[in-house]
Give the backbone structure.
Amino acid sequence: MTLEYGSSLPDTLRRPGDVPVYGSNGQVGFHNMSICPGPGIIIGRKGSVGQVCWSKEDFWPIDTTYYARPKKDLEPRWLYWLLLHSGLTKLNSSTGVPGLNRNDAYLVPVNCPRLNEQRAIAAILDTVQEAIRRTEALIAKLRQVKAGMLHDLLTRGLDENGELRDPIRHPEQFKDSALGRIPKEWEVKHLQSVCEKIGDGVHTSVSVESYGIPFLYVSCIRNGRILWNNCAFISESTFALVNRNKRIEIGTVLYTVVGSYGHAAMVNEKIKFSFQRHIAYLLPAKELSPQFLTLWLNSPLARNRADKLALGNAQKTITLALLSNMVLPLPSIESQKEIISSIGNVENEIEKTENELSKLHTLKQGLMQDLLTGRVRFPEALLQKYQTEDAAE
């Protein structure tokens, strides 16, 4: 194939239409005419170097991109998968403005099977990709369900039958509070009054190592979990120096307070670790379940309150003082456990589906490596359905 230059199309020259316009990192808008027939493949030339995009329909690639033009009859989707696997993102030019030099791309060796095998490879990889898309959509839907459940559980609570209380039918069961209408048995407390300790992480810079004791950054706390696989590492001596007066117990809740603030996760295993000062920690007292505190801090209600509290512009911050004065609804410990149990089912379903998604990604990578390199070939009998008169070497 050859890589052809895209053509400039500033926003001011675009006209209303349904033709997709592609930049280096994907679709950037629409126009009323195209310069390339679809389906087609767009490759990032500047900016997101080597990024590969697919257009089902006629399209307009702008001047920061290339588009692929096959020299022979090829299965377009196979070519798309091949380019994704070819490591073009690593061919960043070292001269001048970073970018993809097409002459470097031309030198990348690839395996080119017969057309019917190209179609078979593309069909398998497309099937796995569609399974990934459906699984990601399911996870997004489950997270929406969880957010809705959290809102209801944290504002209405459960009655003696384990059902959500109804403030319309039974207004006498609710009262006004600083958090709005809540069940009348509940209290509203400041975090400092229901936590034994509130503090933050290491304030000094640390030298990271290739292995050692886990060191967490803000990005290591997402979706109610501590992402240990994303952490850095520090040496034993560094840990001893920076963690002298800090002991994190099981049941401590970590909470991001700088930059990507508002994410909480509970420490649920006995592990020696440290974390940066952009992460706060809260050790709940006996009247507050750490699981309930984690649910509350991750709820849309608490996120909205955090948005109002955060200081600064470029990198917003929730100071320890602000965090300590943040309020939360406090049911009885028994009611907290009921709420935790109710939300647990959907959390388990999310975790199960995320595990399935991880397996699908692993499967896709393995299939790409096997099928696009020729390590695994199709038996002729399986290729018959992809055979056409124009199937040639």
Remarks:
- The first strand starts at residue 2 and ends at 5.
- The chain has three domains: 2-109, 111-169+332-385, 187-330.
- The radius of gyration is 27 Å.
- DSSP finds ten helices and 20 strands in the chain.
